[in-house]
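Need residues for this backbone.
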């Protein structure tokens, strides 16, 4: 097996130095069999739409190959690698026909090198020539049987062709090789799904997700498998989680292809940053289109900056524009300090980068550096005074400084310039409420709701208006707005949370409990709605149901301390003798104290001992509670503890009521 190495510009320079002038796009004579007699075509597709750096890179490599062929250098390692690298450049630029020719040439030059059959298989697959891809992948496996990625790719193509048994063989082989087992299981799961073995498919897909939970592409076939089993709820759940993130498997050759395209894109970033008709929007759009889904994209732009700075040819403006893109990406990732650093370089190097200045203001505001943020927004408004977005952002900073009237002036101007945008009216409502103008604020929010055309916008606006009415002590109108939000989405948690609390305060306990229950359905792992539901049921006199719902909560959240404490106290001190259960209360209280030996758990333990009839133990624990009281315990609380101690000493429970 030949050694593996990859070439770039260094090979081009070597070829340019040693080869004769080029003869054209087709070189070589048919003088017999083998590479020495083959006719090699150097593809020359139209590169006019390509950016300068990758175009020049391809053209230089094309010329160098032609020069080498003209010189009769057909057996050199450099020629082989140059054809292969040119194929990668074409492939990463989606010029598949040209890439196919290059890979064919490389395969002719090195028929025992499985790389080129593999890359040829990738190209043919994307071109839709599935049978050709199968043949190329099989040839690559014959030459390099240890590479599992090729078997996985071949299995995937065979699945597309409906050749399930052949696909199964390749996936099972990968599984036996104990390498990339998740990808093999995913392939076998797809085979099982196509064969109608939905139980086996679910088993395999769930195993893949256990090891690679980020592989969102698994959720769609898993949903189909659950649907085949008649489990509609699980099918719906996984459909909502589906995405494009594929199951990872080790693929160094595929990674090289991705890296080639990534490097070309980074070169284009440098080119675009130097153009005279530079546009912030189009430049940022290109950067995001190339790197928006790539981890570490901002760090890659830092490599562009390093290269440009070392080259000594980059202008201050060019560097500033790349700093702008890097700062924007860091800001999008929530790394505000890095964003600020880059965006400051951007506006210093090119003061005309208005969007960079606005983004810098936003990052500074998020970092609570309000004075600096205000200066950036002021500078941005100097060049375009009638920008409603910047006016709104400056208003937010002014609010943080307590300059409410100035903020209102900005927002009034913003809604005048952009009257159809609900966001401006919403912000104006917030400022006017802080100025004590509740009626006007409510009118502004109502207008924002009328302007909103999408449910996702109207829903939180209804909730905000409900909150405003609540703060204005207008409970009926508050509840009305929460209900309007819930008519859009009955499981909208912010409205459920506020409405449930409001109903509890209005002593509409049954309605409050029902609302908390809807919240539990939407967020079963949250403790707040379960506590709220139990409280509403207890206050509404539905004591047995409160006990049952708390027990159900502990089934779902068996380690939750709050639920254990509330249930233990309810079982120890419920007004309903039929609900009280000293043994169960004591079991929970002991678990609670073992986990958190706090004054509250000690009090609960004393209550439970009393209800279980162990009054001596109840007295001991209650005395321990009182003796350990510190200065933070109020006199009223201490008096209650002493009164309960007296009850236990008189062999009375915490809640002794006459038995009916």
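Answer:
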């Amino acid at each position: 097996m030949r050694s593996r190495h990859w070439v770039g510009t260094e090979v081009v320079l070597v070829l340019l130095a040693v080869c004769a002038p080029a003869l054209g796009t087709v070189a070589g004579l048919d003088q017999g069999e083998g590479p020495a007699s083959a006719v090699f075509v150097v593809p020359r597709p139209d590169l006019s739409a390509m950016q300068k750096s990758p175009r020049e890179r391809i053209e230089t490599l094309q010329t160098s190959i032609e020069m080498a062929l003209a010189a009769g250098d057909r057996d050199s390692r450099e020629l082989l690698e140059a054809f292969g690298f040119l194929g990668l450049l074409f492939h990463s630029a989606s010029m598949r026909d040209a890439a196919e020719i290059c890979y064919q040439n490389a395969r002719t030059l090195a028929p025992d090198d499985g790389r080129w059959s593999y890359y040829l298989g990738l190209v043919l697959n994307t071109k839709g020539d599935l049978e050709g891809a199968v043949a190329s992948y099989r040839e690559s496996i014959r030459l390099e049987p240890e590479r599992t990625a090729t078997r996985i790719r071949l299995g995937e193509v065979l699945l597309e062709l409906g050749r399930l048994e052949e696909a199964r063989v390749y996936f099972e082989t990968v599984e036996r090789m104990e390498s990339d087992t998740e990808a093999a299981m995913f392939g076998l799961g797809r085979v099982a799904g196509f064969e109608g073995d939905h139980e086996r498919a679910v088993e395999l897909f769930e195993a893949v997700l256990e090891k690679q939970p980020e592989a969102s592409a698994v959720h769609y076939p898993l949903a189909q498998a659950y649907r085949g089993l008649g489990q509609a709820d699980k099918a719906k759940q996984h459909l909502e989680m589906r995405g494009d993130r594929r199951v990872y498997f080790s693929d160094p050759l595929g990674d090289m292809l991705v890296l080639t395209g990534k490097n070309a894109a980074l070169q284009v970033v440098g080119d675009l940053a130097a153009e005279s008709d530079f546009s912030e929007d189009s430049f940022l759009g290109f950067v995001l289109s190339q790197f928006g889904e790539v981890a570490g994209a901002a760090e890659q732009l830092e490599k562009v900056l390093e290269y440009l700075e070392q080259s000594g040819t980059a202008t201050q403006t060019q560097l500033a524009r790349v700093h702008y893109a890097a700062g924007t990406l860091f800001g999008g990732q929530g790394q505000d300090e890095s964003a600020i650093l880059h965006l400051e370089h951007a506006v210093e190097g090119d003061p005309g980068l208005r969007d960079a200045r606005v983004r810098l203001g936003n990052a500074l505001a998020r970092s609570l550096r309000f004075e600096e943020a205000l200066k950036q927004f002021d500078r941005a408004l100097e060049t375009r005074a009638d920008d409603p977005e910047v006016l709104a952002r400056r208003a937010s900073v002014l609010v943080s400084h307590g300059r409410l009237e100035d903020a209102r002036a900005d927002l009034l101007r913003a809604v005048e310039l952009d009257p159809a945008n609900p966001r401006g009216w919403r912000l104006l409502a917030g400022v006017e409420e802080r100025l004590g103008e509740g009626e006007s604020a409510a009118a502004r929010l109502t207008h924002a709701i009328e302007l909103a055309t999408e449910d996702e916008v109207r829903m939180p606006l209804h909730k905000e208006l409900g909150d405003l009415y609540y703060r204005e002590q207008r409970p009926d109108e508050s509840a009305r707005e929460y209900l309007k939000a819930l008519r859009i989405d009955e499981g909208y948690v912010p409205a459920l949370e506020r409405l449930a609390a409001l109903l509890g305060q209005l002593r509409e306990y049954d309605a409050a409990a029902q609302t908390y229950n809807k919240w539990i359905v939407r967020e079963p792992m949250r403790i707040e709605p379960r506590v709220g539901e139990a409280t509403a049921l207890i206050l509404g006199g539905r004591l047995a149901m409160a006990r049952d719902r708390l027990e159900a909560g502990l089934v779902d959240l068996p380690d939750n301390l709050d639920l254990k404490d509330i249930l233990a106290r309810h079982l120890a001190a419920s007004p309903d003798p039929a609900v009280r259960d000293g043994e169960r209360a004591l079991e929970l209280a002991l678990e609670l104290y073992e986990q958190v030996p706090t004054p509250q758990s000690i009090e609960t333990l004393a209550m439970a001992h009393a209800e279980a009839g162990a009054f001596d133990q109840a007295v001991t624990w209650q005395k321990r509670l009182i003796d350990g009281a510190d200065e933070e315990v109020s006199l009223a609380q201490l008096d209650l503890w002493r009164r309960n101690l007296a009850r236990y000493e008189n062999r009375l429970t915490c809640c002794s009521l006459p038995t009916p």
